[in-house]
Amino acid sequence: MSKRQTGLAILGACLLACSIGLAADPGVADPVQGQAAAAVCASCHQADGSGMNIPGAESWPRLAGLDATYLAKQIEDFKSGQRSSPTMQAFAQMLTDEQIPHVAAWFASLPAPSLSSAEPYSPELLERGRLLATEGDWDNYLVPCSSCHGPDNLGAGSVFPAIAGQHPAYIRDQLLNWQQGSRQNDPQQLMATVAARMSADDIQAVAAWLSTQPGTPEQKPE
Amino acid sequence: MTIFRLPATKVRHYLLATLTGILTGVIPLAQAELSEESRRILANMAPGAPAPVEGDFVHIPPTLDELQASALHPELKKVILRGHDIFTNTQQYRGQYVYNELNCDSCHLGAGRLPFSGPVWPAAVTLPDYRPKNDHVNNLEERIAGCFSYSMNGQPPAYGSDEMLALSSYIQWLAKGVPMYQPGASMYGRGYPRLADAAEQPDYHRGESIYQDRCSVCHGDDGAGLNTRGKVVFPALWGDESYNWGAGISRVFTLASFIRHNMPLGQPNTLSEQEAWDVAYYVNAQERPQDPRYTGDVRETRERYGETFHKHSLYGLEVEGRLLGDHDNAGNKDFLKPEALRSRSFD
Question: Are A141 and B228 an interchain contact pair (Cβ–Cβ within 8 Å)?
Answer without folding.
Answer: no
